[in-house]
Amino acid sequence: MADAFKNVIAQSLECPVCLNTFTDPKILSCSHTYCKACLDNLLECHGNDQMLRCPVCRAETQVPNREVSKLPASLALKSLIEDVKNQYQFCTNCKSEDKPQAVVYCQDCGMYLCITCQNKHSQWQNFISHEVLAMSEIVSGKVLVRRYRKCRKHPKEDEECFCSDCRRFACFRCVVMEHTNEGHRVIEAAVYESNHMKSIEDLKSKADKKRSCFQKYVDFIEEQKEHVINVQKQCTDDIHKAFEESVRQLTEQKENLVGEVKGRTEGVEKELDEMKKSALEQITHLTIIADVVTNRTKVPSDMDALAAHDTLCQDLHEALKQEDPDYKQAMKSSKKGKSVSFKGNVGMDEIALGNIVNAVTKNITILPTKNSMSDLVGTPDGRMAVGCKTGGVEIFSADGQLQQTFLQEVKIRGVGFLSDDRYVILDVSNNITLYTLEYTQLNVMFETLSRDECASASLTVDGDDQIYVSYWEIRKIQVFSPAGGKAISEIPCDGYQPGQITNCNDHLISNSYYKIRLIDKQGVVKYELAKFGNYLIAVVSQRNTILIATQKQYESLVNIDEYTNELKHVQNLVIDYKIERHGIYWHQLQQYRSGEIAFCTPDRLYIFH
């Protein structure tokens, strides 16, 4: 009875996963116990999951941060294992109550043997081939004991059978009593173990093949990664070389530009220094003569003194006849220096700092009809077209000369050009009309919204010849094909008025009094710039940057600045330029193909370089 109890205890001390005596046993929430190392392996099989599924009952246990070590330990089981390890194993073959200590264990008999029994065992002919293990090796863990399971119902019987339907071992008596009548599939335990081991070996072989398959895949990934690393290194080296070469070129350009600025301004400095020197000499001359003449305590009486006094007075009179300082000459000289400006290459493809330019007004042209300007747009041949709400399109050269006027009978709201140079005209009634280069009206109709439906409107044309009409009050933009007809699409302007619109690559620029918006072709605002109290107008420059003109409310000063396509400031081009005061805050901005900037008020065209 005692031996059967020991066998039950021994079986209870085995981990269901590794089938060895528990090592650092941990308890799951379902109360089943496993070795910590076995649980680590099970958790690893689930990837990054923090949920551990019990192999016996399939219940789930949360493992925070995947730290199995923090699961509760089975202290009672650990203590029992230590006690069993520290106890001597007695001979199970001797019949006496005072049994001697065992020295070996026979795997085939399933019995512990003392020295006497071992000697007899080794001499029995049928037992010579049995596998015998030394107790010292068993205790040290070098070898594992293959124990025969004892039936719990019949402790003296070994579980020599296995029921495939119940998935459990059983003794012969249990098979006859419980499994045979049920028609269960019962085989010898040894056969099951053999088949099971064969199945395990087969699984292990398949796992090895699968592991080899994935290892080849890992090796392949490493090979591809090495190729990528080599490409990265090569590209990085090329970038460093290109950067160093660009730095060298930019450094050289910087030195040249600084030298050019110095050359342009040094002459002005010398001119001003000469003017200053001459003025200081005049001051010194006047001071000396005046002191000599006026600082006398008595009137000269003899002839020599009188002659000297007369001469000095005459010199003072001559000095007083000198003209007053010429401020215009100084301003003229300084203007040459102050007009020197640096124009950066922001937005350009080539690597270059920029150029030194003269930012000065070239010309001011009074428009033929007062308060008439409604739109300003560059022509395909590089000139500037002014649309007039009183009627007509006026064409100006880059030096501000009026060269041509046509369509005088059409009251114009907006002007645009298609890629074949046809004119696109939006009149004050919001009708779109196409004209040839010879100003012949084409028979193409567009179904725009009338002025009664939406008062104000503006027009622009993009690089794909699509025509955009913005309706301010109803806050939307219609898109038309040059073939005419209904709008092919509409762009909602939620939360803002589109105002004056200008094409900007894949976006549109919306000018709404105090705010500039860069919107995409779906009406979504990507970037915006606000200057409350200032009237703003923006266009795309010849360098694909953005030019913005600013006029302060109730003032006659205009500033023109350059910005990136994200509306970040680059540089000042025109600072506080005084224009003719006008009661209507309506102005337009464009750039000539040759680089001049055109700023137009209702009755004047200002051209800057």
Distance between the termini: 114 Å
Instruction: Choose one word for the global shape.
Output: elongated
- Report the helical percentage: 25-40%
Average pLDDT score:
83
Strand content: 25-35%
In total, the number of domains comes to 3
What would you say the CATH architecture of the largest domain is?
A: 6 Propeller
**Number of DSSP-assigned strands:** 35
Main β sheet profile: 4 strands, antiparallel
Structural overview:
With 609 residues, this protein is an alpha+beta fold. It has 3 domains: 1-87, Zinc/RING finger domain, C3HC4 (zinc finger) (Herpes Virus-1, 2-Layer Sandwich), CATH 3.30.40.10; 192-332; 354-608, Neuraminidase, CATH 2.120.10. The chain is 31% helix and 27% strand. It is built from 9 helices and 35 strands. The strands form 11 sheets. Strands 13-35-34-33 form a 4-stranded antiparallel β-sheet, with no helix packed on it. It has a 4-stranded antiparallel β-sheet with strand order 14-15-16-17, with no helix packed on it. Strands 21-22-23-24 form a 4-stranded antiparallel β-sheet, with no helix packed on it. A hairpin with a 4-residue loop joins strand 5 and strand 6. Mean pLDDT is 83; it is low at 1-5. Residues 15-58 form the RING-type domain. GO terms for molecular function: ubiquitin protein ligase activity; zinc ion binding. One of its GO terms (cellular component) is nucleoplasm.
Layout of helices and strands, plus pairs?
Layout: H1 2-12, E1 25-27, E2 33-35, H2 36-44, E3 51-53, E4 60-62, H3 75-86, E5 104-106, E6 111-113, H4 115-123, E7 132-134, H5 135-140, E8 161-163, E9 168-170, H6 172-179, E10 186-188, H7 189-294, H8 303-320, H9 327-338, E11 340-344, E12 354-358, E13 361-366, E14 373-378, E15 384-388, E16 393-396, E17 402-406, E18 412-417, E19 423-427, E20 432-435, E21 457-461, E22 467-471, E23 476-480, E24 489-492, E25 500-504, E26 507-512, E27 515-519, E28 525-530, E29 534-540, E30 546-552, E31 557-563, E32 569-578, E33 588-591, E34 597-600, E35 604-608
Antiparallel strand pairs: 1-2, 3-4, 5-6, 5-7, 8-9, 8-10, 11-12, 13-35, 14-15, 15-16, 16-17, 18-19, 19-20, 21-22, 22-23, 23-24, 25-26, 26-27, 27-28, 29-30, 30-31, 31-32, 33-34, 34-35
Helix pairs in contact: 7-8, 7-9
